[in-house]
Amino acid sequence: MSNRKLHVISTGNQTPENLAKIVGEIHPFIDAIHIREKHRSARDIFNIVTLLVNRSVPLAKIIVNDRIDVAHVKNVKGVQLGYNSLSPEIVKRNFPSLQVGCSVHTLEEASLAQKQGIDYLLFGHIFPTDSKLGLVPKGLEELKDITIDLEIPVIAIGGIKPHHVCEVIEAGAAGIAVMSGVLEAKDPLEQVKSYSQNLLNT
Question: Gene Ontology terms, cellular component aspect (predicted)?
């Protein structure tokens, strides 16, 4: 795999069992799977991580959104923080073993997150996407501005198809993140291979 990262983020639309089945098949081709299930409890998230591990998904590839308690107890790779999460400084200080990511939508938010010691950022949405209907995409130029200004890796997200990969990487992204583009594809394994191959070719 190239040093360009491929993150896959759960959509919240699958059963835990189906999510684990898909991720069990695709994990050799991705760098991280984010468990982003806002409607589920800490116990539910704990059980999803267990299902993934039972499907041979390495803990070193699992990132839990917001639930620092589950991330710590299960000893996964890291935690992804959102707007209402604990501050990155608090998380980094109290849970030094966790890689900490943050979702941002502006250069100001990105700069602040970098100052707080974040390991990487998710930035978007780059292209139109059904999950952000009515919201104007950030586009490649804004992505380029973010990556030029920051020293930490920026993972681009939002409406990214396999044929977009090259231009997204050329804009400075360290990788891409995909949700429904993989997990709700007709053939998730073939789709993730397509993303992976395009990353290898950049």
Answer: cytoplasm
Q: What is the pLDDT of residue 168?
A: 98
Contact by Cβ (8 Å): 66, 102: no
10 Å CB burial of residue 33 (0-12, 13-18, 19+) is buried
| Predicted confidence (pLDDT) per residue in 27-80, tens digit | 999 999 999 999 999 999 999 999 999 999 999 999 999 999 999 999 999 999
Indicate which CATH number applies to the domain containing 112: 3.20.20.70
Residue 138 and residue 77: Cα distance in Å, rounded?
A: 28
Residue-level length of the chain: 202
SS3 13: coil
Its pTM stands at: 0.96
Q: Vertex 152, ends 148 and 153: CA angle to 5°?
A: 85
The 3-class secondary structure across 144-181, one letter per residue, is HHHHHHCCCCEEEECCCCHHHHHHHHHCCCCEEEECHH
Catalytic residues: 125
Q: How many domains does the chain have?
A: 1
